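Summary for the steering committee. One of the milestones for this cycle was to obtain a three-dimensional model of the protein with adenosine-5'-diphosphate bound, which we needed before selecting residues for the alanine scan. The sequence and ligand used are listed below.
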Amino acid sequence: MNIIFLGAPGAGKGTQAEMVAKKYSIPTVSTGNIIRDAIRTGTEMGLKAREYTDKGHLVPDEVVIGIIEERLEKDDCKNGFILDGFPRTIPQAEALDRMGTKIDRVIDIEVDDETIIERMSSRRVCEKCGASYNLESKKPKVDGVCDNCGGKLVVRDDDKPETVKSRLEVYHKQTEPLKEYYEKKGVLRVVEGQQDIEDTTALTFKALEE
Ligand code: ADP
Ligand code: ZN
């Protein structure tokens, strides 16, 4: 099954994507994680991308399209994959169609802006391995320390309140039109994000099965 997760930044699509990946044993491809890895290791793409991510802007389409094209060719994507954070614009969705990939389901996780702004303030990320946490809903076992690797947990540069506002604006303007794009193809399923992660996961699984 080839699945796309749509939703505003901080709606919890990354977390839901991970749950689905476990259940179906297919990989999650997160452009956000790939870009952050590149920034951390200081590659040329990372240096360029940072100018956009820090401001809460989207990285140019041709850059992310290139990343996805390369990633989806790998063997582990042959039996299905989950896209988290791609496509985010109509041209990206059209490029994905041109790659000849059939999309079976698009899960749109809906959460209102106010809740998102609240949630982002409690979001933390491991500076070493990139794992995500939330001080309210997905706490690390030890305060400020990553469960996976013992790295330090920090606020993502683009999770600062000013940047979050700009990311939400970008979402409404450039990404939300994708709902209609996939609705027309008959593959869109809307999931109302719940307060408890497990409740959202149950709705997500249901949306994938129907
Ligand atoms: P979010 O929490 O906003 O879903 P991501 O981790 O998916 O965050 O992405 C972080 C940043 O990486 C975005 O704000 C954007 O600058 C960049 N990015 C990720 N995916 C894309 C994409 N498909 N197109 C353009 N930029 C992207
Ligand atoms: Zn870590």
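Key point for the committee: The pocket of adenosine-5'-diphosphate (ligand 1) is lined by residues 9-10, 31-32, 35, 52-53, 56-59, 64, 85-86, 88, 92, 158, 167 (CB under 6 Å).
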